[in-house]
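Pilot study result, target chain (193 residues):
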Amino acid sequence: MQRIAIFASGTGSNAVKIIEHFKGHPTIQVSLVLSNNSSAPVLAKADTAGIETITFNRAIFYQTNKIVNELKSRQIDLIVLAGFMWLVPENIVRTYSNKIINIHPALLPKYGGKGMYGMHVHNAVKDAKEKETGITIHLVNEEYDKGEILFQASCKLRENDTPETIAEKIHVLEHANFASQIEHYLNTSIQSQ
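Predicted structure:
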């Protein structure tokens, strides 16, 4: 059984889609949901699905090996960032090299980097009068949004799109593609490592 740990900071709509996708899967399971926000709605959703949760603060995340040890003790094979807002520290990136996947709400390398998340991205896309935007699923390294790109999907934008309608289009792409791309990565790349 390949085990996934999901890191999320907020409501967890992508996390829920991933949990649903792998429910009852014969070889892949979501084993753990971790959050830096003890009141994040994603934690209650994970509890409802019967998935163990862990919360942590900035000091634990950046100054200890507690999270790495928790992941290793549960034999986690892949980390998925689903709306997780902090830069992953070097000790986790090193331990899980090529085994951390993030989803970004734009077509990287455009609109990536520190501070470029959620509505900040959609506002920037709108301000630049882009004709299309999309999602990027990529590996995580020590820099925001700089890891190897695994998959992109795009959607057309209209002149009358607002940052809010752009966000809706992005959510559709995320929910349609993220879980299946995680499964594809686990079935191809991780098994061959």
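One observation from the pilot: The chain has one domain: 2-190. A full batch analysis is planned for the follow-on phase.
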